[in-house]
Amino acid sequence: MTPTGPPPPRPWREAWHDALYGPAGFYRESLGPAGHFTTSSHGPAGEVLAEAMVRLAEREGLTTIVDVGCGRGELLSAIARIAPDTTRLVGVDVVERPEGLDDRVRWHRSPGGTGLPEATGWVDDPARALVIANEWLDVVPCTIARAGADGILRELLVDEDGTESHGAPLTGEDLDWARRWWPAGRDGYPPGARVEIGRSRDAAFAALLARFPRGLIVVMDYGHSRATRPEGGSLTGYANGVQCPPVPDGRCDLTAHVATDSLGADSVTTQRAALRDLGVSGARPPIELARTDPAGYLRALARASYAASLTGPGLGDFHWAMARAPRG
To answer: Which CATH number fits domain 17-140+197-228+251-277+317-324: 3.40.50.150, 3.40.50.800, 3.30.565.10, 3.10.490.10?
Structure first.
């Protein structure tokens, strides 16, 4: 028999996709994302976000709320507890419908990454849908490139253990995207500079716009703009509640921040500003309430702390990219 060695390195975007969405991918394990890290959608803070989403849907006259990349439906469960009975709820993720999910939630499986369920059958009235995607685009795999000693961007390859190597120079649409959205400085790309090519995220966002005529798309994510691109890139891993090296072995989340200015959204704002516009404030309740209604004061104080976590440093700095579909 001919001995076989380890598989050859391959483009990060391929290894990344398989590590998250393959048959043994990170997002298919039973714990789900909430077993490893907390997002705005989880726990008591998720209750505050749910109230804001219901308020946004009512303000915009939208009767369906769709959550793309919804994990195990945590945010939708919170929405179901407070939304009017006439509000339809739809969850989209790579796993089968979770047990115990509220009966109001219609569930659709997605292939993961840029893939979405079939174009028809998501909702009864897609023109009146609020489509939200919290920390979805940051886990849509993308091409990663690194500048060599000559300043030329080359696609990064990766082994199963996370060891990286240079592939071929960037060409075509990937190179065009880098030149437009992640341009080199006056002296070119410094050796070792990394670029995360956002074309796959742009395409995923455009696909949502195409599916929901006149709906409102709200993508919430770690983000940056041309003025704040991270020279060293942002690809990292998370497992068991802590940050870890990005290794495409299916045992950790793999995430990179989103170039939100390239998406083609109608507006991009911070989560802090968007939630405050929806009435979410981390302000403490008046101390007088503690004397007249101690239990109510404690509830209001707890809610204020959760609101503050959504609007403070970190989560409050998230980008909300918002667009009507179709535009123009």
So the answer is: 3.40.50.150
Q: Which helix (DSSP H) or strand (DSSP E) does residue 90 occupy? A: strand 88-93
Angle between helices 43-60 and 294-311 (to 10 degrees): 80
Domain spans, the chain = 7-16+143-196+229-250, 17-140+197-228+251-277+317-324
Residue 46: which H helix or E strand, with range? helix 43-60
> What number of CA atoms fall less than 13 Å from residue 163's CA on the CB side?
7
pLDDT tens string 42-71: 678 889 999 999 999 999 999 999 999 999
Q: What angle do CA 254, 251, 7 make, to 5 degrees?
A: 90
Q: Which amino acid is present at 214?
A: R
Give φ, ψ of 284 to 5 degrees. -70, 150
pTM for the whole thing?
0.90
Pairing of strands 64-68, 267-270: unpaired
For the segment 84-104, what is each residue's pLDDT rounded down to a tens digit?
A: 999 999 999 999 999 999 999
Q: Which residue has the tokens 């907390």?
A: 38
Nearest in space to 55 (alpha carbons), one of 123, 132, 107: 132
- In sequence order, what DSSP letters do the residues of 146-195 get, joined into one string? EE-TTS-EEEEEE-TTS-EEEEEEP-HHHHHHHHHHS--BTTBPPTT-EE
Q: Give long-range contacts, CB 8 A cutoff, 24+ apart: 98-105.
A: 98/32, 98/72, 98/73, 101/72, 101/73, 101/76, 101/77, 102/73, 102/76, 102/77, 104/80, 105/73, 105/76, 105/77, 105/80
> 204, 221, 239: which is closest to 29 by C-alpha?
239
In angstroms, rounded to a whole number, what is the distance separating the alpha carbons of residues 95 and 116? 13
Q: Cα–Cα distance between 157 and 209 in angstroms, integer? A: 32
Asked whether residue 176 carries a pLDDT value surpassing 60, the answer given is yes
